[in-house]
Design brief:
Blueprint lengths: L10 E2 L9 E5 L3 H11 L3 E14 L3 E15 L6 E15 L18 E3 L3 E2 L1 H12 L27 H4 L3 H15 L1
Parallel strand pairs: 5-6
Antiparallel strand pairs: 1-7, 2-3, 3-4, 4-5
Length: about 180
Amino acid sequence: MSPTPPNATALRVAALSQSTPTAFSLIPDAAEFAALVDALGLVGLRKLRFEGTVRPLGTADWQLKGKLGATVVQSCVVTLEPVTTRIEANVLRVFLRDYQDVDEAEVEMPEDENAEPLGVWIDLEAIMEEELALALPAYPRCDDSPEPTTLRVTEPGKTPMTDEQARPFAGLAALKAELEDKDKE
């Protein structure tokens, strides 16, 4: 297997204690901050910290429990003004030696969505980046950004179609109601 770690923060599974949890604390340096800002498309990033423990789970599996804290600056989706968000997230990963990865087109979600295959290394930096990416607001908005409005466009002299009319079964519901009214008469 790979004797070279993917980065300086990766933990070699064979070197982890089988009896006590292994604590970790990551605070990236300026170059790592800049790389994360570029990779995640952020305006800014500060106060990033990822800390927790890796402990044995049974005889061959491992569990990572941690906390991720960060202050991110993103562009508002409406005004493009900077939006600052504080992120606090709990992190749970379970690394399984006998992980079954299914490559079929149609599969059900595994019972444990935190399960991953156990490799030679537990890459703390990669986990931190992935958890930060998942915790980012998808559509950051400034407090003073205008509320979304509904825009309806049609030909001059015609009535614009409403959202209700655009639904595929709206016409069927109206027809059913009309037929029911005729049956009552």
